[in-house]
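@channel sequence for tomorrow's demo:
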Amino acid sequence: MIHIVSVADLKVSTKPGDLLVTYALGSCLGIAIYDPVINVGGMLHAMLPQSTIDPMKAQKNPSMFVDTGVPELFRRCYDVGAQRQRLIIKAAGGASIHGSDADDPFQIGKRNFIMFRKLLWKNGLLLRAFDVGGSISRTMSLDISNGRVILKSNGQQSEL
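structure tokens (generated this afternoon):
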């Protein structure tokens, strides 16, 4: 079954037939985590790096922000049996919405990825693969059967 992960949303699955998919990763950051031993995976589509800009929104929807959505994603995967030391972590998105960093005054995509890397570093976790930056939109999917993360962009498809 296909489960759509909307903007500012996250989903977790324990069912090997499931596919988690998120569309239109521009400056947003898509994060997929997967435990290959028990076939548990989750995906987050975070819009903004820091919840401090609107704590009330972060409380209502932690998935909107990288700094609150990432811990929530990991917690939900742990709740269904995933183990920290087995997790495979991948990310995509973080593009510049104006074509280049020089033309993008807010650099949301870049800041999203930096915040994510800081969280991983603080928690001693490694990022297995990523496809971030540039100026293209990406679609990301996570197959719960095998942990494969597929990216689609500009008519091309690749495995992350």
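heads up for whoever presents: The mean pLDDT is 94.
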